[in-house]
From TrEMBL:
The gene is LOC115987902. This is DUF538 family protein. The keyword Signal applies. The keyword Hydrolase does not apply. Residues 1-24 form the signal peptide. Keywords: Signal. PANTHER family: OS01G0595400 PROTEIN (PTHR31676:SF172), T31J12.3 PROTEIN-RELATED (PTHR31676). It comes from Quercus lobata (Valley oak).
Length: 160
């Protein structure tokens, strides 16, 4: 090696040695898993609802921005356990309703088991901190933070 090429080589090596610790500091040694959100989940947040109202596995959705009518396709029936009281809920292959800011009405396709029978959830209201689930004339209020993560359907994987 000539003195000029030796200088170039040692300078390059020194720069690489300096850059390696910098790049090690930038990368997170314990990256947190991120939840992959569908466009339907993101649409929920646009109307003031948490993503956890829908299961993680969403195959498609449609919404009429004028009327608020929506349809969410799950690709099959889905069972989940709803927080915080561990109610068993079932989602039909298709969930339909009408959504406006902070309110879902005419909801069809979500049922919950409580008091030894199945009840259809007909509406959901969001106050920001709380969600109010309507079952006909009866309602139940839960903290929105219980629905910050979208649950997986029991017995199915969200990677499909």
């Amino acid at each position: 090696m000539t003195p000029k090429s030796l200088f170039f080589f040692s300078t390059t090596l020194a720069l690489l040695i300096l850059l390696i610790p910098i790049s090690a500091q930038i990368s997170d040694p314990n990256p947190k898993p991120t939840q992959s959100l569908s466009a339907a989940h993101i649409e929920l947040t646009n109307y003031g609802f948490p993503v956890g109202l829908l299961p993680s596995l969403v195959h498609g959705y449609s919404i009429n921005k004028t009327s608020g009518d929506f349809s969410v396709e799950l690709g099959g029936d889905c069972k989940i356990t709803l927080p915080p009281d561990n109610y068993l809920a079932t989602y039909s292959r298709t969930v339909r309703g009408k959504i406006v800011s902070g309110k879902i009405v005419e909801l069809d396709g979500i049922r919950v088991r409580a008091l030894f029978r199945w009840w259809s959830i007909t509406g959901i209201r969001s106050t920001g901190e709380d969600l109010v689930f309507e079952v006909g004339m009866v309602s139940a209020k839960y903290p929105s933070k219980n629905f910050d993560e979208s649950p997986d359907c029991e017995g199915k994987h969200s990677s499909s």
